[in-house]
Specification:
The complex is a heterodimer of chains A (149) and B (412).
Chain A (H helix, E strand, L loop, with lengths): L2 H13 L4 H12 L23 E8 L2 E8 L2 H14 L4 H6 L4 H4 L8 H34 L1
Antiparallel strand pairs in A: 1-2
Chain B lengths: L1 H7 L2 H6 L7 E2 L2 E2 L1 E2 L10 H14 L9 H21 L7 E4 L2 H16 L5 E5 L8 H10 L2 E5 L9 H7 L4 E7 L11 H10 L4 E4 L11 H4 L3 E5 L10 E5 L1 H6 L10 E4 L4 E3 L13 H17 L1 H20 L4 E4 L8 E6 L4 H10 L2 E2 L1 E3 L4 H7 L4 E5 L6 H18 L1
Parallel strand pairs in B: 3-15, 5-6, 5-7, 7-8, 8-9
Antiparallel strand pairs in B: 1-2, 4-10, 9-10, 11-12, 13-14, 14-17, 16-17
Helix pairs in contact in B: 3-11, 4-11, 5-6, 12-15, 13-15
Classes of the chains: A mainly alpha (149), B alpha/beta (412).
Chain lengths: 149, 412
């Protein structure tokens, strides 16, 4: 499913709930689907700066696609990362870098997080994109090396 | 006797004085339990400040014109109101600052410049807000002095015996909080001051969480310096008080320099003005000071003893209700404690809890409360803090308990 489709799907899901308490419940549900980061990565180097709760994020390259794993000590945060991973994980670096995450505004996520928390959300997205950028750069480098050799 | 006092405390009238309490948040009646962060403002304060801008605004001290004179007099009368409120000996011992943090920074700079040198020691406590740690740390770095910390026990009480041991001939100052913002411990500051004075060591007390909850008498405490903020005592933001004993204020150099605080300026040499102006460089926040005086009038009119009794009743009631909630653990069990309940819910992150509580229209604070060393001492990463004020009610505590029930249902 392309990224647009997944985002539409999420917006539709959240549209089913009228109040934020139910939406939080949905995030709690989603938190259980989070591809949990390997314990050995739960180290300060994998912590995302700028979050009130602790968030660890890792990414690996599999067949040209970035696969993310993460964890958090807060459940709602986990639910939010699960959403981000659903949209971004298993995509090529270009897809991750070029597409807009419009679903966040559409489901009203930012307005329902306090400013410090919504900064945390921005940090998470930034970190995910940074991984994509790093893998893209690495690919290009190995690609160029191949040509010259 | 106590019963009559309670009857005299007209909570409906008091709530009526605070317009913001009547709004809704997330379509629910607003409940505000973040009073240790800032308090709301009664009409008396809002209207007094409104009047300054509408009717009398002019810069103070400089003009010969009519309104400048009126505003100067109101500003100086605000100083007198503050003096009376904390029972300082002289008006000129009251320095207006922008808040507690500014007051501590003033002390750390000016007192530090004058009295602190290499290998000297400054004593703080394990219960401090970052604002009463970091300025001293910076001073110690500048002067190569040492920061010593009075430890606390599991109840959140300071170890006074340890404190006594800590003082020596290199100790230059003791800086402690009157009431801990994170867990509500009331420190025995009079005792702490007395002990320091036996060694001839001056004491600075951070009163940011104290002055709104009961009478403070700086002469009785024999505090050498006492600092607090306007906005945590129903006054405006951006105004605070640095009280210092006259002899100290005379001895220490000014912190910031500029207009009004000078006596003679030539390019070769500047001499400084008399107290308190020596410490009030630039245009002071006179509107804020006048607003603060209005807040003090309001507190005094209502009666600090009555407020204290009301808040104690609320704290006891909340503690009783919380004790019945499974998995709820309160941090801070000091014998003397006011207005703050800091707690965690078993296996639930304070952040998760805070988000749900917010949707009930209830404001609490989650996190470390600018007191990371306190959290470290308890081995936790943060708490949920409900801090109460003169306008809170038992019904609001019930609403919080209901929200906590929902949190447990969702995350438990």
């Amino acid at each position: 499913m392309d990224m647009e489709k997944v985002q539409e799907e999420i917006v539709e899901e959240f549209g089913l709930f009228d109040d934020w308490m139910d939406k939080y419940n949905h995030l709690i549900e989603l938190s259980r689907s989070l591809p949990v980061i390997d314990e050995k990565y739960k180290k300060p180097e994998f912590l995302i700066e700028g979050c009130q709760s602790r968030v660890w994020l890792n990414a690996a390259m599999e067949d040209g696609r970035v696969v993310y794993t993460a964890d958090s000590d807060a459940v709602i945060t986990k639910g939010i990362i699960a959403l981000l991973i659903r949209v971004l994980s298993g995509r090529t670096p270009d897809e991750i870098l070029e597409n807009d995450l419009w679903f966040i505004d559409r489901i009203g996520l930012k307005e329902n997080l306090s400013p410090t928390r919504s900064n945390g959300l921005i940090s998470m997205i930034k970190q995910m994109k940074l991984y994509a950028l790093a893998y893209k750069a690495k690919n290009q480098k190995t690609g160029r090396n191949g040509e010259s050799g | 006797m106590l019963k009559t006092d309670k009857l005299e405390y007209n909570i409906e009238k008091i709530r009526g004085d605070f317009p913001i309490l009547h709004r809704q948040v997330h379509n629910k009646p607003f409940v505000y339990f973040d009073n240790a962060a800032t308090t709301h403002k009664p009409l008396e304060v809002i209207e007094r400040m409104d009047r300054v801008y509408r009717e009398t605004n002019s810069n103070i001290h400089r003009g010969v014109h009519y309104l400048s004179d009126v505003t100067t007099r109101e500003f100086e009368s605000a100083r007198e109101t503050v003096r009376g409120f904390i029972n300082a000996r002289n008006d000129h011992e009251i320095i207006f600052t922008s808040g507690t943090t500014a007051g501590i920074n003033l002390a750390a700079f000016s007192f530090g410049e004058r009295y602190v040198g290499e290998n000297d020691e400054i004593v703080v406590s394990a219960l401090e807000h970052h604002a009463n740690i970091v300025p001293w740390q910076m001073l110690c770095e500048r002067k190569r002095a040492k920061l010593r910390v009075i430890p606390m026990d599991d109840h959140g009480e300071l170890d006074i015996e340890e404190y006594k041991e800590m003082l020596n001939d290199r100790t230059r100052l003791v800086a402690v909080t009157h009431v801990a913002n994170s867990i509500g411990t009331v420190n025995p500051v009079k005792k702490i001051t007395g002990i320091a004075h036996e060694h001839g060591i001056p004491v600075l007390i951070d009163g940011a969480q104290a002055v709104q909850h009961g009478s403070v008498d700086v002469q009785d405490l024999d505090a050498d310096m006492y600092v607090f903020s306007g906005h945590k005592m129903y006054g405006p933001t951006g105004i605070g008080v640095f009280y210092g004993k006259e002899n100290i204020l005379e001895e220490i150099p000014p912190y910031q320099t500029g207009g009004e605080m000078v006596d003679q300026v030539t390019f070769e040499k500047t001499t400084f003005n008399q107290l308190p102006l020596k410490f009030e460089a630039g245009t002071p926040n006179y509107t804020g000071a006048i607003g603060l005086a209005a807040a003090i009038d309001y507190l005094v009119e209502t009666g600090l003893d009555k407020i204290a009794a009301h808040e104690k009743d609320l704290l006891d009631y909340a503690a009783g209700r919380f004790a019945q909630i499974d998995g709820l653990k309160v941090f801070g069990a000091a014998r003397e404690k006011i207005s703050v309940i800091s707690f965690v819910l078993e296996d639930i992150h304070p952040y998760d809890a805070g988000m749900v509580i917010d949707k009930f229209g209830i404001a609490v604070r989650t996190g470390t409360h600018c007191a990371q060393p306190v959290m470290d001492r308890f081995g936790i990463r943060g708490t949920i803090r409900a801090s109460m004020a003169m306008y809170n009610t038992r019904e609001e505590v019930d609403r919080l308990c209901e929200a906590i029930g929902k949190v447990k249902e969702m995350f438990g």
